[in-house]
C-alpha cells in the first residue's frame, strides 16, 4: 500500500466530546485514518505524552484594518498569521471592513489583495457593514453571502462605523433572508459619548478613564437592544467580546426565551482588569490595555468563568486588534492626541498568539474547564458557528489535517521578546502559563515546532464558508 504522508503517533487525541489514545494518518493534507497503530508513513511525529487537538480557530481577529484616524495596525496578514501559527492556530477569521461611502464588494476585493500569498495559516473573512446603502442591502450583501462570506459584524458605537437602530434592523432583515450570521459590537454610543464628555470636563483624561467611559451599563443596554432587534426580525445573532456579568445575563435572559443568541468572550476578560488601565500610577502605560469593551473587575472575571463553564459562551476568540504602543512618528497608542484624552487612544490589544495558552493555563490547568470544553470553545464551536465545520475544528476522517500538539506540563512566561506579532508589547507580559502548544500542523505540514515557525507565507489559503451549522 502506498505510504501515508504523515503519521502522528501515540498522542492523546482530544475532541470537543472525547479523549482517547490513537494514531492519526494524513494524506494529501487530509486526515485519512484514525486507529490504534499507523506505521506506513513517509514522516512520523512522536506525540507520546502530548495532547493532539484540532488546530485553533480564532473567530475574531483584526489585521491590516483601516482606522478612522489613519493609525496603522501593527499586524498585516504575514505577521498576524505567523503569530497565529506560533500560538497553535490553523485558521483565523479577520474582518473585511467597508469604509463609509465605499462599495462593500470593492473593500472585500482589496482585502483579498492584502491577504493573497501572505498567509501562514488558513483565513476566511467576516464582513463589517458600516454603510448599508440600498445597493449594499439589495445587491452586494446578498451576493457576498452566496459567495461564502456568511457572517458580518455591525457596530452600535464608533462614529465611523456605527449603525442607527433602523439601519441595524435593515441589515438584520437581509441576514434573515440570506441566512447569514450577524455579529454585534454591543456598546451604547450615546452613553459612551455622555460619559466621555463628563470625564473630560472634570479633567479625567488618562487612559484609565476609557474603562469608565465604556461602562458595563452601556454594554448591557446595547446587548439587550441588539437582542430585541434580533427577536423582532427573527434572526440568530452573536454578541461578540462580552466583558462581564451584566451583558452575559442579557444573553441568558434571551436564551431562556428560546432566542438564538450566541456569545463570545476573550482573554482580556479573564486575564486583565480595569486596574491594568491605570498603569503604575495613572500613567500612560495604561494605554497598553485600552480595548473595547474594556476589561472589568475580579467579580466580572468570575462571571465570565461561570459562563465559560455553563455553556453561556459558545466561543473564545482573541479579538486581536494590534497597535504599537510607541510606534514611529506618533503612530502608536502613545501619540500626542492620545495624551490629551483617552478617547484618542486606538482601541484594541494584540492576543492571537496568547489566546490558547491563556485559556489552557487559566482554564484547563487550573481545573476550571475540561480539556474537551477548551477544544469546543477555541476550535470546534467557532468552526461550526462560522460555517467551516467539519473541514475545520474537528479530528475526523475527511477533515483537513489541522492539528496542534500540546504539552500540558510545559511551563512558560509570556514575554514580548518571544512573540511573533508586529506589536511592540504584549498586555500579558510576565504571565505564568502551564500548558503550551509545541507543534502546529496545517493540512499535514508542520508550520511551528517548539516555538520556531517553520511555515512560510503562502502556506495558508483562503476558505470560503457555508451557512452556519448553528442556524
Ligand atoms: N472592537 C473590536 O471588535 N475589536 C477592537 C476594538 C473594537 O471596538
Ligand atoms: Zn468590536
Ligand atoms: Zn474585534
From TrEMBL:
PTM field: Carbamylation allows a single lysine to coordinate two divalent metal cations.
GO MF assignments: dihydropyrimidinase activity; metal ion binding
Cofactor(s) listed in the protein's UniProt record: Zn(2+)
Listed Pfam families: Amidohydro_1
Domain Amidohydrolase-related, chain residue ranges per copy: 51-446
PTM annotation (N6-carboxylysine): residues: 153
Domain of life: Bacteria
EC identifiers of the protein: 3.5.2.2
One Gene Ontology cellular component: cytosol
Keywords noted in UniProt: Hydrolase, Metal-binding
Class of the enzyme per the UniProt entry, highest EC level: hydrolase
Sequence similarity: Belongs to the metallo-dependent hydrolases superfamily. Hydantoinase/dihydropyrimidinase family.
Protein name from the UniProt record: Dihydropyrimidinase
Name of the gene this protein is made from: hydA
Amino acid at each position: 500500500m502506498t505510504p501515508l504522508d504523515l503519521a502522528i503517533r501515540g498522542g492523546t487525541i482530544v475532541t470537543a466530546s472525547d479523549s482517547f489514545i490513537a494514531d492519526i494518518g494524513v494524506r494529501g493534507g487530509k486526515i485519512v485514518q484514525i486507529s490504534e497503530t499507523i506505521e506506513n508513513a513517509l514522516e512520523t511525529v512522536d506525540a507520546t505524552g502530548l495532547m493532539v487537538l484540532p488546530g485553533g480557530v480564532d473567530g475574531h481577529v483584526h489585521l491590516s484594518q483601516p482606522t478612522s484616524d489613519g493609525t496603522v495596525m501593527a499586524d498585516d496578514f504575514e505577521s498576524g498569521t505567523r503569530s497565529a501559527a506560533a500560538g497553535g492556530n490553523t485558521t483565523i477569521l479577520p474582518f473585511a471592513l467597508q469604509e463609509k461611502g465605499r462599495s462593500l464588494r470593492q473593500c472585500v476585493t482589496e482585502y483579498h489583495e492584502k491577504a493573497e500569498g501572505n498567509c501562514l495559516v488558513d483565513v476566511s473573512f467576516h464582513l463589517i457593514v458600516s454603510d448599508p446603502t440600498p445597493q449594499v442591502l439589495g445587491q452586494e450583501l446578498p451576493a457576498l453571502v452566496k459567495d461564502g462570506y456568511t457572517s458580518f459584524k455591525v457596530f452600535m458605537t464608533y462614529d465611523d462605523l456605527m449603525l442607527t437602530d433602523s439601519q441595524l434592523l435593515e441589515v438584520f432583515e437581509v441576514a434573515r433572508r440570506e441566512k447569514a450570521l450577524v455579529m454585534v459590537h454591543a456598546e451604547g454610543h450615546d452613553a459612551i459619548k455622555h460619559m466621555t464628555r463628563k470625564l473630560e470636563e472634570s479633567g479625567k483624561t488618562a487612559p484609565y478613564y476609557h474603562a469608565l467611559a465604556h461602562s458595563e451599563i452601556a454594554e448591557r443596554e446595547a446587548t439587550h437592544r441588539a437582542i430585541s432587534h434580533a427577536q423582532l426580525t427573527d434572526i440568530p445573532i452573536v454578541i461578540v467580546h462580552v466583558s462581564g456579568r451584566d451583558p452575559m445575563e442579557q444573553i441568558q435572559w434571551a436564551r431562556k426565551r428560546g432566542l438564538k443568541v450566541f456569545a463570545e468572550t476573550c482573554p482580556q476578560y479573564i486575564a486583565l482588569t480595569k486596574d491594568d488601565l491605570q498603569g503604575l500610577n495613572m500613567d500612560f502605560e495604561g494605554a497598553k490595555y485600552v480595548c473595547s469593551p474594556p476589561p472589568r473587575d475580579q467579580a466580572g472575571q468570575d462571571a465570565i468563568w461561570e459562563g465559560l463553564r455553563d455553556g453561556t459562551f459558545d466561543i473564545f476568540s482573541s479579538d486581536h486588534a494590534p497597535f504599537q504602543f510607541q510606534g514611529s512618528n506618533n503612530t502608536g497608542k502613545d501619540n500626542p492626541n492620545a495624551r490629551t484624552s483617552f478617547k484618542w487612544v486606538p482601541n484594541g490589544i494584540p492576543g492571537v498568539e496568547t489566546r490558547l495558552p491563556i485559556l489552557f493555563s487559566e482554564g484547563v490547568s487550573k481545573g476550571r474547564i475540561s480539556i474537551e470544553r477548551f477544544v469546543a470553545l477555541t476550535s470546534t464551536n467557532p468552526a461550526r458557528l462560522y460555517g467551516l465545520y467539519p473541514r475545520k475544528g474537528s479530528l475526523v476522517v475527511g477533515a483537513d489535517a489541522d492539528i496542534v500538539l500540546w504539552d500540558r506540563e510545559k511551563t512558560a512566561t509570556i514575554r514580548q521578546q518571544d512573540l511573533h506579532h508586529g506589536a511592540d508589547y504584549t498586555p500579558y507580559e510576565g504571565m505564568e502559563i502551564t500548558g503550551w502548544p509545541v507543534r502546529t500542523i496545517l493540512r499535514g505540514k508542520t508550520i511551528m515546532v517548539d516555538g520556531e515557525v517553520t511555515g512560510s507565507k503562502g502556506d495558508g489559503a483562503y476558505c470560503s464558508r457555508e451557512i452556519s451549522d448553528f442556524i
